[in-house]
TrEMBL record, chains A, B:
Origin superkingdom: Bacteria
Protein name: Phosphate acyltransferase
One Gene Ontology MF term: phosphate:acyl-[acyl carrier protein] acyltransferase activity
NCBIfam families: plsX (TIGR00182)
Keywords: Acyltransferase, Cytoplasm, Lipid biosynthesis, Lipid metabolism, Phospholipid biosynthesis, Phospholipid metabolism, Transferase
HAMAP family, per the entry: PlsX
Family per similarity comment: Belongs to the PlsX family.
Record organism: Pseudomonas vanderleydeniana
PANTHER family registered for this protein in UniProt: FATTY ACID/PHOSPHOLIPID SYNTHESIS PROTEIN PLSX, PHOSPHATE ACYLTRANSFERASE
């Protein structure tokens, strides 16, 4: 029921994923009459693999996490998480209220042993591919121990996505030892001593985009601002490029030829809008799609959930955390 | 003597500024023989307005601020700041080591009454013009009071640059009151009560680039990471655009036409590389040019210093701070 565009996009993305993946089964959780009406628009869909599960309430995009926890026992978000908890589904994907999804996930699924707080991670495009950036906003205040846990989780997630010996870095204002705030310096000490982790040191904001690390760790305040400012800048650049090509007749001619190429690029660059963000550290797989994600963004989020199921990510995380933390 | 390219670019930029501004006088501080040799390459320059002042030492780009303070009494940076302190020049522009410049500036010039720590500010391009972003890295840990002082200083700086009733915002992970860390929430309380300040509330990373505020305030950890990641992203996008246009013959033809337009845009977008960053809150005008600034970047930094001299920025700041803080 979530997202800035409601269930319409979600149904469309579901139908597309079902036809692309013959082994996929999807359960849509929400108001049955509305969902059935939307599904009816796709008569060719294989209903044996598309179930509707009822939930009478929905959490709005501006609701507080505390309200979501206490006020709505039958929200689509909570019901979906309960299905995951009860092993009736293998992962939950939501485009709804991020804070509420995190609070409900922690409440219904619980965190893995050794993890104080789940983190939100997404793949950010870089000059050399992608890096996993975390935390993206679930935790605004973090201790060194939290940053350490994020590093371990990010490393395991990158491995699951196919990176060998992922290079793990701490985001900082400089690369020298003396740089940074107290939490970052202490976290560096913890990471230097961690066995089995390819910790490469501090990284700066420009190093992230140069692709110097596969996993970049920061607190949720910094990560959220980095992610949103990057989206804002990419949007601004795209708008300026278009304006430039519309400026005069000669550039308009060039633009007519160049813009299709540039719009391809634009899609590549919108980080979390395009890819799902995962919640790491929970006893279950939860992927958050951007609230304003289009159909393609939702498909990417479902795709990310499928990879995490295939790789059994929570189990892998659990094993690694036992090695490193306990 | 500073910057990634040493004094060669600085001499070239100085010569260009002198010929553009007939009332400008410049003093180059550093090793006289080296500077004179470089100046000799420009026989047409008006030497009545271009002085060389000797300094036997230079601070390297990787030197610690504490070393710069204690170890080199005759560094070009320190000598230049002493000339400013003694009213023999009206502003200092440097492309050298940022941390050392800040430490020496505080030591030689002192802060204005009511200011605990100077902040570094630069103009960031947005969809609607520019916003003044501060702090950019001088202060990695900030209290609410520091953020409040930065807001006041940023507002006065924006006014000096021609903005009427600058819209001042606090950078945060959401725009609702409950969002953010403790410092940001407390700073919001202080700003809401400040008379004569056009405080508009919280702003997110994407709002910054949409141009929703004229002054955006954050701690130096966040500001530095935002600035550097933005530079990294802009560079990456430019590289991808070029790669896209080189990909095949058809796009290469389009690219040959489009790339000159795009390189114009690229110059507009590199924020601090292009514009000087000012130190605010000192008893004197100090402008920091990016270490890797080209000649044009250095000219922009000198230009920013000239505006601050014309507007008598430290004096204006002092007056406003007395009204608001004392």
């Amino acid at each position: 029921m979530g997202g800035d565009f409601g269930p319409r996009n979600i149904v469309q993305a579901s139908v597309a994923c079902l036809s692309a993946k013959p082994s996929l089964h999807l359960t849509l959780v929400g108001q049955p009459s509305l969902l059935e009406e939307l599904i009816a628009g796709y008569p060719a869909v294989d209903r044996a693999r598309l179930t509707v599960f009822p939930a009478s309430e929905a959490i709005t995009m501006d609701e507080r996490p505390s309200q979501a926890l206490r006020g709505k026992p039958d929200s689509s978000m909570r019901v979906a998480l309960q299905l995951l908890h009860d092993d009736r589904v293998q992962a939950v994907v939501s485009a709804g209220n991020t804070g509420a999804l995190m609070a409900l996930s922690r409440h219904v699924l619980k965190t893995l042993p050794g993890i104080d707080r789940p983190a939100m991670v997404a793949a950010i495009p870089t000059q050399r591919g992608y890096c996993q950036l975390l935390d993206l906003g679930a935790n605004v205040d973090c201790t060194a121990e939290h940053l350490f846990q994020f590093a371990v989780m990010g490393s395991v997630a990158a491995e699951a996505l196919g990176v060998m010996r992922p290079r793990v870095a701490l985001l900082n204002v400089g690369t020298e030892d003396i740089k940074g705030n107290q939490q970052v310096k202490l976290a560096a000490g913890l990471l230097q001593q961690a066995r089995g982790l390819n910790y490469i040191g501090f990284i700066e904001g420009d190093g992230l985009y140069r692709g110097e690390a596969d996993v970049v760790v920061c607190d949720g305040f910094v990560g959220n601002i980095l992610l949103k400012s990057s989206e804002g800048l990419a949007t601004m650049i795209a708008a300026r490029v278009e304006a430039l090509f519309r400026h005069n007749l000669a550039s308009r001619l060039v633009g007519a030829l160049a813009l299709p190429l540039l719009s391809r690029l634009r899609a590549d660059l919108a980080p979390a809008r395009h890819n799902g963000a995962s919640f790491l550290g929970l006893q279950g797989i939860v992927v958050k799609s951007h609230g304003s994600a289009g159909v393609q963004g939702l498909q990417s989020a479902i795709q990310r959930a499928l990879i995490e199921i295939r790789e059994n990510l929570p189990e892998r995380l659990h094993g690694r955390l036992e090695d490193l933390l306990l």
